[in-house]
Amino acid sequence: MPAYLTLTRADLVKLGYSPSQASRIVKLTKEQLLKQGFGWYGKKGVDRVPVEAVDAVLGLKLGQLEGAPSGLSAVKEELS
Hints:
The protein is α+β, with helices and mostly antiparallel strands. The protein contains 3 helices and 3 strands. α2 crosses α3 (about 50-60).
């Protein structure tokens, strides 16, 4: 099964973003995922988003940054 790295607002803060920037990044990422048809991200309690989706919003490759993902509390989630 494929495994995916995910991020939360706290993970983005650890990478150096301010809390308000991190919240905005997660919000924008969730909006993009909703537009792509992933209705799950419309729920308020969902605060974890895929790294690849954050990369698309920021135009970066977070997994290639120094200290990432080992500097993150990102987890592997298996899709069933």
